[in-house]
From TrEMBL, chain A:
GO molecular function, one term: ATP hydrolysis activity
Family matches, as PROSITE patterns: ABC_TRANSPORTER_1, ABC_TRANSPORTER_2
A cellular component annotation (GO) from this entry: plasma membrane
Protein name: Peptide/nickel transport system ATP-binding protein
CDD domains, sorted: ABC_NikE_OppD_transporters
Pfam family, one: oligo_HPY
Annotated GO biological process: peptide transport; transmembrane transport
Keywords assigned: ATP-binding, Cell membrane, Membrane, Nucleotide-binding, Transport
Membrane topology: Peripheral membrane protein
InterPro entries membership: AAA+_ATPase (IPR003593), ABC_Ni/Peptide_Import (IPR050388), ABC_transporter-like_ATP-bd (IPR003439), ABC_transporter-like_CS (IPR017871), Oligopep_ABC_C (IPR013563), P-loop_NTPase (IPR027417)
Every ABC transporter domain range: 24-270
Compartments it resides in: Cell inner membrane
Automatic annotation (TrEMBL), chain B:
Matches recorded under InterPro entries: BP-dependent_transpt_permease, MetI-like, MetI-like_sf, OppC_N
Membrane topology, record value: Multi-pass membrane protein
Lineage of producing organism: Bacteria, Pseudomonadati, Pseudomonadota, Alphaproteobacteria, Rhodobacterales
Residue intervals passing through the bilayer: 31-52, 96-122, 134-152, 158-174, 213-235, 255-281
Compartment(s) of residence: Cell membrane
Name of the featured protein: Peptide/nickel transport system permease protein
A GO CC annotation given for this chain: plasma membrane
Domain ABC transmembrane type-1: 92-281
Matches recorded under Gene3D superfamilies: MetI-like
Keyword field: Cell membrane, Membrane, Transmembrane, Transmembrane helix, Transport
Primary location: membrane
Amino acid sequence: MHSEPILNWFTRWGRAVTRADELISLTDLTIRVPGYERPLVDGVGLSIRRGETLCVVGESGCGKSLTSLALIGLLPPALQRGVSGQLGFDGDRIALDDQRGLSRLRGRNVGMIFQEPMSSLNPAHRIGEQIAEAWRRHNPGDGQAQAVEMLRRVGIPAPERRMRDYPHQLSGGMRQRVMIAMALVNSPDLLIADEPTTALDVTIQAQILELIGSLQAGGEMGVMLITHDLGVVAEVATNVAVMYAGRVVESGPVEAIFGDPQHPYTIGLMSSVPALRGPRTRLASVPGIVPSIETMPPGCRFATRCPFAQPRCADTPPSAEIAPGHSVACHFAPLDERLAGAA
Amino acid sequence: MTEAATHNATAAAPIRKPRSRVWGKLLAHRSAMFGAALVSVFILLALAAPILPLADPAAADWAAIRQPPSAAHWFGTDELGRDQLSRMIWGARASLMAGVVSVAIAIAIGVPLGVIAGYFGGWTDAIISRCTEALLAMPFLILAIALAAFLGPSLTNAMIAIGIAATPVFIRLTRGQAINVTAEDYVESAHAIGLSTPVILRRYIFPNVLPPVLVQATLTVASAIIAEASLSFLGLGQQPPAPSWGAMLNVAKGFMAQAPWMAVWPGIAIFLVVLGFNLLGDGLRDALDPRED
């Protein structure tokens, strides 16, 4: 960073102010697997404020889903044993290996929806009953009225009658609406949506994203949306965290990530999206593949594929804040104009 | 469900309701329907035994010992002059009850243990599974005979013995099914809405492990009926003078040359009822198999 001390102070002050309405802050999430030197997820930090949508992007296997599962203590037991890190939730601090503490958040403070609406509902029970069950877990009363109300809010017609349907009587989009109703019936502070539209067709995708947006707009809810669809990110995100091989390589406001990507991986991702306008050119791609956990390089994990890699990249790059809220984990950030143009 | 609601559901989602699909497949399954008919006939006869115009199954008639089938005694009489038709129908009660009650015992013990083993895995699973395998290593009938001999001869004890002997199969089956169901997305989403483990076991795992258990139960009723007949044949089941097919066969074996009808009728009854349950079980398995469409 080349900024004056005074500017440095200002940005810090700015952040301190915004911290007050910070809903969750995940710090230093690390997931280790016994027998492997390098962790699967390495020092991930994220923060979401009320009313904001954080999109976590990255390719398959980069640790997006593990991060979200660690957040609510739902990792498979073998991975749960290797978890460390801290979760700040609405002022409380919870250690990420404290499953009991995390389980208290589930359903009440944090709602979650999954990728596969077709298989995420219990086929043995009516949908109304399943929503009511989520309500009863955390509240008095039978939850029937709340279930009807939630079905109405997620846009299911004739909710009183639909209450009595079994999951197999609904289409994929309808089931995802029911999942959202289940996740939100207790008015959670945070909704985690793990690729909620991947299994749906494009028109339904748009409807579901719009629905999540509209449910969030009224309240104080933060949304963590995990996706690998940059089109979705551009549409709904307030902030973006780009993950690569178990680390957050770049994070910041959506405008900064799309308009001024700084990490070579982010730049590669952005240029691999086909443009609708302009001359047709060969679609850019990031060369190579993600190294496996055994062959993961020390230091910067992107170094094996990075066009700018230098000997220095064998050291782990610190996450540097190059603009307010915009952090990049690269030794060369902020990028030289010349280099950025070359990329 | 009302007709309007059904109509509405089909309009919104062109997926046929699995429940009615299963019923449809079962109803269209000829051998299953034949099996169901056989089983129903025996169940109806057993239920109606007290009101049918039958001779007292325990009343000896010294004037009509070992009579061949006749107008007075359609199925003949046994060595004490008791009416064989009446004894066969009353005997159906013991056999069917033994079949159903022992399977109910096996399910009541086996399914919860299987669900627990499959869901929790690890040490819990290892302990339950090793015990199950130890029991499975013993042949079903030998185990049932050993237990019945240990408990003492009576129909109740025979049912308990058969039930316990049939339990390991249900533990095994349920465990495997529970492992599958535990990995389902809807169980993960149940965790995500914060449901407690007992609720997840009861409302998410249990109902979804049931279909194969149902098939196994139907087939095991057939084995249990044979086991009860075997135990009664050995004198470990139904005690005289109360009628039971196995006990009837036991007596009949001494008169095979002089009065073969004494052995034929209970033999046919056992054959038909076991065939009925097996056909029904096979049909249920086909109907519940999602791949057979």
